[in-house]
Design brief:
Chain lengths: 483, 201
Amino acid sequence: MAGTLAEKVWSDHVVRRGENGEPDLLYIDLQLLHEVTSPQAFDGLRQEGRPLRRVDQTIATEDHNTPTIDIDKPIADITSRTQIETLRRNAREFGVRLHSLGDAEQGIVHVVGPQLGLTMPGITVVCGDSHTSTHGAFGALAFGIGTSEVEHVMATQTLPLKPFRTMAITVDGTLRPGVSAKDIILAVIAKIGTGGGQGYVLEYRGEAIRALSMEGRMTICNMSIEAGARAGMIAPDETTFAYLKGRPHAPENALWDEAVEHWRSLHSDDDATFDAEVVIDADALEPYVTWGTNPGQGLPLSAVVPGPEDFGDDTERSAAERALEYMDLVPGTPLKDIAVDTVFMGSCTNSRIEDLRAFVDVIRGRRKHPDVRVMVVPGSARVKLQAEKEGLHEEILAFGAEWRQAGCSMCLGMNPDQLAPGERCASTSNRNFEGRQGKGGRTHLVSPVVAGATAVRGTLSSPGDLLDAPVGDAPAGGAAAAA
Amino acid sequence: MEKFSTHTGIGVPLRRSNVDTDQIIPAMYLKRVTKTGFEDGLFSGWRKDPSFILNQEPYSRGSVLVAGSDFGTGSSREHAVWALRDYGFRAVLSSRFADIFRGNAGKQGLVAAELSQDDIELIWKILEENPGTEITVDLEAQQVRAGEAVFRFEVDEYTRWRLMEGLDDIGLTLRHEADITAFEARRPAWMPKTLPVRTED
């Protein structure tokens, strides 16, 4: 029978088919853990005297609470330190592999899994973190779960679930220069809304998706949850195999061949039917930016701040009113006139090596705008090492930006990296919710290249806007490229 | 998990859509390693505003939250459900819930009842015209009753059964442990293994 990619991976993992309205029992190949959503799950196991069933399919890292400076010193915030220490104790007690702060494999859980080669096509991945959808970029079925489910997977390596619906998101055409994966997904969310993907697995397909690197595909799948989807997926292809080959945990020799043979079968059949379909024209896309307080409130950067009257629907109109008030924006203002205080380049959405390269390509030889604080936070210690090997950090420092240690950092401000009340930030992260980056902070979601251009000009900008300001023509007295 | 059949309590109209889990409980409260005592974090950003609904009597004693569409979006934090539960909420009514939130609620005995947006609007009106109106959430009959009005709500049949029986999911799954073991024996050898540890160096 013809099937979609998601249906194929699902049926490969059914331990027991549910009958009479019961859910299926789905096998989980890989569980990723971090310090925030795991302590209560470990406690649950302890209370019931249950072992962690498959430590060899479980890996933990420290990311949400970890500081991005002075990582050799004890963590100053006592509750953060306790949470990290709790993870270390639990990992020891249950025999779970953990990459701690200071370890070369430490980093954001969704950066670490793929870079170790643990995330593979056709597997199921869960984590107590909604951005687990990231791993779908490999053709894995990957989704975020709550702590009760984390405990359930620890104890049984399965989850009772009803099959997800499927939605095809076809992105035809070619992206223009300065437009990237982030703009595709922001445009998708603006189109279908924050609840549009509810109950669905989104499968991204089409020419523009095929042309993306694995990093770009991860950016897109990462934000599937912002459209309310259970997961995002992209069929594996030569780009996927090339990324995986030779990674520490990728299969080798005969097993590699066997795996690739199976992976090649993981695509939606031509005659498969999706429950819903959406088409996006890549040629028409511009850099996108959000103006409001949910990721669906986004527009092309050339647009103006909308007014409540631009929305036909009562709910959207009142949401826009609230958002404009919180964001302190006046309808009709060109988005490019919005000045920011901070640029945050990082998060599980955009902190991989390619993201850093794209950012540096824009800022190369320039100085940051004097009124803007620029923070660059690599997604993992491994990404940081790679960037330093390429000399990217020197260009970032010469630009006037801060070059930090790996972690979730200002994406959610659980560590000291936070916005002050009223501060405005252009952020490559994934959520522009009220207070997400710090109480009273205001977030505009952007791509790495828009982050770079904004850091140069001080207002929301695309790389195209820098054509008027050639390299070396530093604004406001900054010395040109120091390196 | 405690069994849930029917609950009656003061309804709280929260006229906002897209109430994300960062609003339900901000990240700063997620540093705790316990599973209870999260009531202080519930809507903590909004509760600083004296005019916020939970700062008003009798709503501060409410136990049935009536919210706008797309409730519980964003982060997977189960802390959002713990915070609602610890504050005293037993049910949330909305026209649409985020999937992960709804799943988490079902594990913790919090009923996430889905009604049409028109019904939500009617209930808001009833609650605002008569503050303190008690709402009954009858899981067995799949009904919400507010004043004279009766509404049907949707809830996943399996979740409803589990909530009414107060059943622990893990215990249910472990009854099929033989099936899990048999499945594991069939898994291909190329599947990822986190141990023994391999790294780039």
